[in-house]
Structures are given as structure tokens and as C-alpha cells.
Amino acid sequence: MKKIETSRRRFLQGSVALCVYATSSFSFTSKQNSSITTIENIPYLCNMCRNKCAGFARVQNNTITKLNPNKYFPKSRNMLCPKGNAGIQAIYDKDRLKYPLIRIGNRGDGRYKRVTWDEAYEYIKDKLVTIIDEEKDNRSTIAYCNGEGFNKDEYIKFFGSKLGSANFLDEGSICLNTKLGATQLTIGDIGEMDVAGSDYLIISGANRYESLITPDSIDMIHSKQKLVVLDPRCTVTALKADEYLPLNPGTDLAFCLSMIYIAIKEKLYNETYVKEYFKDFDKLQKHILKNNYTASWAESKTHIPAKKIEQISREFFGAKNPLYYLGRRSVWAQNDFQLRRAMVLINALAGSVNRKGGIIFGKPFVLKQEQINEAFYNNSQGRFDLDGIVYGSQKGGSWLNFREKVLTKKAPYPVRAMFIRKHNIMQNMPNIAKTKEMLNGMDLVVVLDTMPSDTAMMADVILPECTYLEREDMVVSFNRLEPSLALRNKVVEPLYESRSMQDILHGLGRKLSKPLFAVSAKYDEDLQESIEELGAKNAFKEGGYDFTELYQNSIEQRNKKLIVSQFGLDVYTSLKTKGVWHPYIGKQKELYNDYYEYYPKEKRFYTVDRKYRVNCYLGKLEKSGFDPMPTWHSHYDFKLSEDSFRLITGRYITSTQTATTNNIMLKEFQEKNHLWINDRVAKKLDIKEGDTLVINSPIESVVIQAYPTNKIAPQVLWFAHGFGTESEELTNAYGKGASDNMIIEDKFEKIYGCATMHETNVTIRKL
Amino acid sequence: MMANYAMAFDYKLCINCHACEVACKEENGIDLGAKNHRLWIDEDGETEGDFWNLARDKITFIQMQCQECQDAPCLKACPNGAIYIDDNGIVRLYKEKCDLTLACMKACPYDARYIDEKNAITDKCIFCADTRLARGETTTACQITCPAKLRYFGDLDDEESEISKILRERKHFTLKPELGTKPKLFYLE
């Protein structure tokens, strides 16, 4: 039987099928002339997902013909994943945004006219001057956002430090801010997990073999540690685990609480470590024992047998270098912050902090920052998206709280314009209808991107950015245990009329600086005084109102100056020729089969001199009416009415959110998503593989094909994120599969304001 | 230079990430389309039982491609004499002699060949012989990109090569040995 969701080619003994001719992959056409061209191998950093693995791009005739891994980078360990390999199809994607565009139809209908860069800038300038004038120089009326990536800080410098808006949003509140915050607030640092050094590894939900994180995923393959995986879905990570513990969704916290209970009750924890580093251990002990988080209690919540919980707990605390993996993916439920804290506490109870195999602090290279002259605006108001959030990220804020306040007009002032870069907000957060409504309420929406995403289709102005293979970016410091520097070099010149972000902002800055300065001069009394005192020209210059200040020199010049002054010319040369520098780059030892040792073991920063405490109890939370310690509440129990299902989401190995589903090479592996449904449940409902189903959630419904399998829990449904694209301009992705965020309810937890992605219950019916 | 190229797989390390498949298609200019490929991962077996008591040990990911038979059925089957073994011990094709009788495809017990419509030939893995090896590189596209580094590629006639060493050190098997095709692809236990 033909199987969806598994290998695309089964072992077809003897059978031969003639295939439909498709266009050839790009490398072939350029390969024809390889004998007469010279080959260059240029080091670059990948951008197909958040990892930033290093590679060498083979260039012939000014065309990239192959991407290969870079053996010098400790982080990516001389490999490129399927997405990294398919990056070549990202630069040569025929659907790319090629020219600046201005909307001529309605928002979302995809009708645009091609304009020059100057016309696009002029259009933006006219709108911005009007809006900021009408808002009496409250710059925060212009919100701006940027998904994950290298240039985020420069983007913030432009719209925050120069233009003066407080409303910046990023992916953190629809990703992993609870985990970062939980680690920071519990041990004083976000740390780094030493997967390679651990001899016993527990992973809750994170799917490290289908959502690769470097070096974690690679280290798991090459290490010999025992791997225990908890997941309501048998992922490839679970398939490869030594022990797989299937559990009810959202009950990982009960498992963790029970591990803490067992550690305390049986005195399995590292007493010396707890004595030296723990603060309020007595409170934690009392709390855990009082609530009686026994293994059999946890069994009733999680569906994991009590004996198994006891066995795993004893093994974990008995191991030399155990690690409870803190996860790296979207936030699941209301208890996510305390779930991550429980994980940190489990590591700390085992003494697995600031030592081999644990959460390490390490010693990253700290790069000097280029100083810029920040402009100050008296009439610019503060951000409002953290109102009602206990901690929250001051940098990236809370997307759902922001959107809700803008939509319901509960924000203290109107947000009238939005600059969106590398952030597909029409697909990346729950309840797409609300994002659409928010953007429809704006007077100006500008999108900087490489692809005509669903979000780009909502823009008034589209500014085509070049891809990661067509630009140099500022040098970046990576990792803590085996720190290194890496540089994204430009491989080929930008195609079409696309430009780097710096070039785009430079052009925009030239256009905006003076007219917007004039608006400020109208409303800002301090600026009026300054003009009177210094004259307009000097007030402009000294007040930091020139938006182009950062871009007076090219990225290439800025990198050279920064790197040479801090690290010397040799390091700069290494970054330009190898893409990477670390202190042992010339002495890397090949362990086997092109797999390397980077830092010698004795030189890695497993343990550093650091004063810190492990905070069991967070008083601020108690004052705000939240649990100061990880606690179970009855409403966390997994209980559903008989005909409903809990919807959970995740990824395929070949896709990174929505950014890769249009990739013509990756499409071959997973053209669309399917709904995972428990095989026995499906049988009862007479649902067969490939049947078309409607999934109804409280907010919307989607249509998707069924994949009955024994690899998912009975009352749980799963389908991958990244599909169900509505933009017809993405010709490979359009109309393929379903979008999870169409039906996921927009709930968020109140500690970090993060969207909770696994709290939506749905029903299904056959179409 | 002459060599006797072969490949060994530490196959249990595979996470079925498809990096090898993409790297191969990009390096060798294989036509797009899921059916056109020189190599693939065979997902062998299924999880058994019900979800709460799942048996996972039946699933294996097996790296599949031309097995580089030393007694190659495809070579014997071709009515045009288009298939030969080159100086490096790789089963190759005289492209101009191939007229798509498909005899080789029918003869291959490993389903290693597909029809390359663009060139009107049957195509299969040749260890990147006309791309990477021709440029003097010593790795195949699939080997160097693999996150698990589970593919050992090298010269069997060189006793010091990594593949020779690992085959001396570790137990291994070949696919369908009963057919007597003498494959040069080895799976490490």
C-alpha cells in the first residue's frame, strides 16, 4: 500500500514506472560548462533555519552550483541538512520578490505594480510624515517586527534608536521566551546545554531529529548517552530513543514534579551542590512533599507507569552527567514557564549546572558594539504589550497581547503603521483572522522579505531583500562551550533589484531623516530649544537624527574594522577565507570519517568561575498572584469530552515554518501536511488513509487528509506547521495542506506573554 | 589513478533526514521529481502494537543506492553492451550506447536505476564519478553532508583507507548476498 508521511520511495522490487518529466535542478544547467569555468568555494552561513550552519558555496560562472558543509565550524560539525542543501533553490526560486512593489488592489488580493526603489521610498516617506504629524510625533505609532536572524539588532537600531518607536516585536513570544526566562530567573543566565557531554539525556517533546538544532542534534547522533523521550507522538526522536515514554499532552510538568519528589524523598539529589548553590531549598522541599507528587500521582496525570517514572528518576540522578533537555520550540500551555523551571531545577538538583554535560555558562566571545548616536523623542510613548505580563521580554514583547490591544483599541494610542521584516505574521501566530484584521486597520504596511509570503500580500509596499547567499552580514559570536566567530560572506551579487537590509535602510534613511526631523521640530520642545541653540544643521547631527549614520561605511568595511581592531588581521583573514575562526582552527583533529574534534577536551569551558544561586522560589510571581514554584493544578489535567481531540503541532525535517514550503527541492519530500490520528480511533470513526477531513476548532476550520497511525495518542491530533499558504504568488506552496494557525486559539500565558500553541481542542468530520 | 571504490554504512545511525538525497540531486543535476534519484532511504518495517505499548524496534532506515555489484546483473542484461566497470571499480554506462531497453532496470535486484529522461538513459549512483571525483575531490556529496557521518567512502584496495579499516574492525553484511552479485556496499552491524 502506498503510504503517505513515510519515505517517498519504498523498495519497489522489480517494478518500473515511467516518470513525468520535471524541470531539472539548477545545478545541472550550469554544470554543462564546468570544464571551461573556474571554480570558487566561498564560505557562507546558512539561513534556511535559525541554526546558522557554516558551508562553502561552489560558484561557477557567477552561479552557485552546490552548497557543501564547512568543516571548521564547531557549531555545525561539518554537515548540511536537507534544507541547507536545498538553499540553492532559495536563491534561484522563480517566485522570489524581485522588484519594489506598490499595492494597487485590495490588501491580500496580490495586485501590485512594479516601481523604482526611489518611488517606493517616496511613497513610504509621504505616508510616514502624515502619520507621525497626525500623531504629534509619537513615534511608537510605527510598530516594527523582525523574525529570527542576524540583522535584527541593526533593524532595531534603525526603527528603535533612530526612528524612535518603542514597539518592536519578534518571534520570542511565539517561540521559546518562557524557556529563556525560566533559565535566566532560576540560575541567572540562559546558559547552553552540553548535550555531547551528557551521559543521560531526557527530552520532553522537543523533536531533535526532525527539527535539527546544531550542535545538539548532531551530538545526540554521535554520543553514546542514554536517551529518554517523552512525547504524545512517536517522532523520529522517539523512534531512536533508548526509552520512549508516551504520555498525555501537556502533562510533562507532572512527570517533572514527580522526578523532583523522588529526588527529595529518596535523597537522590546532589547534597553538596544543593547546599552550596540553592536558595529556598527548604521551601521547594516542603512544597513538593506537601503536594505529594508521587510516581503514582504522576501516572494518573501522564499515563506513564509509576514504576517507569521511578526507574527513570533513579537512573537520572544516579548518572554522572545527566541532562534534562530544556527544549527549544513553541510554548505549549499556560504552565510552560514553570514547566521549564522544573526542568532547570531537576538539572540543578543533580548538580548539572556549570559542569560537563549540564547547563553550562561557558565563555562566549563578546564582540564590541559599534556606537551610534541615539535620537530622543519627548513625544514618543512607551510599549503597552507587556501590560498585564509578569516578566515578559523588554526586547521582543508579546505578540498576542500587542495584537489584541491594537485590535480592541485598548492600546493607549493608535498603532497606524507597521514595518515587517523576515516575519510571516500572517502564518506564524494563532488566529490568522485577527492578524489580518490588525493589518487591515493600518494606514501603512511595509514588508521587507525575499518571498511573496501571505504577509507580503498584505503590504502596501514590498521591498525585496536579497537572500543570505547574496550579502555579507556583520560577524557573529557563537556558542559558549566551544566558542567561535563566524562570518556570512557574500557568495554572489544580489539578483534582480533585491538589496541587503542595510542598503534598504540606508536608502530609506536618506529619504526619511530630514522630513521626520521637521515633524519633530514642530512638536518637540527640547528639539526646538536645541535648534535655537545650535542651529538646525547641528541639532540634526548631534541629536542623532541622521538615520544613515550606521551605513556610512559598507558592511565589508565595518566588519574589517571591528574584527581587526578586536582580534587582529589573522582572525579576519580566517573569517574571510574559512568563514569561521576559533583558537584551535589549525589544529582540529579528525576523529573519524570527516567528523572533527574542535576544542581539545581540556580547553572547553565546561566550568567557569561564576557566582550564582539556584532560585527555587520567585517572590515576584507570588505577589502577582502566580505560583512562585512549579505547581500542578487540576485544570492542567488532560481531560476531554469523548468526541474531541487536543491539537498539537510540530515540524517535518524538511521544512522550517513557512519559509521553506515553496522550495522546489524540499517539496519533493513533503509537498503537504497530513493529519496524524490514532489508528484505532480512526478505525472506529471509519477514517482511512487519505480521507479528507474537516477539523473544527472554536475559531475556524481547515480541510486536511488523514494519516491514521499508531504513533499518536488516542485523543490527540497532529499536523505540521508551515503549510496551507494562501499567497498565490508562492506557486509551489499555494493550496498545499492546512495551516495550523488558522485553527489554533490565540491564548497566551501571563508570565512572558507567550502564545500557548497546544491548548486548542477540536472536533473532526469526514468530508 | 586506479582505485576500487566502495561504501560502508553505519546504517543504524540514520535519522532519515534526507540530507544525502538533496545533496546528491544538487551535486549531480538529477531531474526534479520524487521518482528521479540515485539514492534514497528505505524506511523498513513499521511500529507495531497500540500507541501506549508501541514496539519501535521493527523500524530501520536503510541507505539504498546502486550496490556496485562486482558481478553486476545489469551489465550482463544490457543487450547493447552499454554497461561497463570503470578503472575505479564503478559500474558505469556508455551513454551513447543506451537506448532505453530497460533491461538493466529489470535485472537489478536492488531497484537502483531510474530513467533519466533528460539524457534518455537509465541512471544510478556512480559515487559522483563525473562530478566530485572528476574534480579530484575525495568525498561523495552524500558522504560529506551526512549529519551522522555514517557513510564511509573509499578505496578497498588501499589497506590504509578508512573503509578498509572499518571493514576489518566491524561485522558487516551485504544486501541479498544469496544472489551472488557481490555488492561493494557494506552495512555495518
Can you count the helices of chain B? 5
Beta fraction of chain B: 15-25%
User: What would CATH call the architecture of chain B?
Assistant: 2-Layer Sandwich
Using only C-alpha atoms, the radius of gyration of chain A works out to 27 Å
Structural class of chain B: alpha+beta
Helix content of chain A: 25-40%
Largest sheet of chain B: 4 strands, mixed
> How many E strands of chain B?
10
Ends distance of chain A: 23 Å
Largest sheet: spatial strand order of chain A: 5-4-17-16-15-6-7
Q: What value does the Rg of chain B take, in angstroms?
A: 17 Å
| pLDDT < 50 runs, ≥5 residues of chain A | 6-34
Encode the helix/strand succession of chain B as letters: EHEEHEEHEEHEHEE
Spell out the blueprint of helices and strands.
The complex is a heterodimer of chains A (767) and B (189).
Chain A (H helix, E strand, L loop, with lengths): L25 H6 L8 E6 L8 E7 L2 E7 L12 H4 L2 H4 L9 E3 L8 E3 L2 H18 L7 E5 L5 H11 L5 E3 L6 H11 L4 E2 L6 E5 L11 H7 L3 E6 L4 H5 L2 E4 L5 H14 L5 H7 E2 L1 H10 L4 H8 L3 H13 L3 E4 L10 H14 L9 E2 L38 H9 L9 E5 L3 H4 L3 H9 L3 E6 L11 E4 L11 E3 L5 E3 L14 H23 L1 H10 L1 H7 L12 H13 L1 H9 L2 E2 L7 E4 L2 E3 L16 E2 L3 H5 L21 E6 L24 E4 H6 L7 E5 L4 E9 L6 E5 L19 H4 L16 E7 L1
Parallel strand pairs in A: 6-7, 6-15, 9-10, 9-13, 10-11, 12-23, 15-16, 16-17, 24-28, 25-27
Antiparallel strand pairs in A: 1-2, 2-3, 4-5, 4-17, 8-14, 18-19, 19-20, 21-22, 24-29, 25-28, 26-27, 26-29
Helix pairs in contact in A: 4-18, 6-14, 9-12, 9-13, 9-14, 12-13, 15-17, 18-19, 19-20, 21-22
Chain B lengths: L4 E5 L9 H10 L10 E6 L15 E6 L7 H5 L5 E3 L5 E3 L9 H5 L6 E3 L4 E3 L17 H5 L5 E5 L6 H8 L2 E2 L11 E4 L1
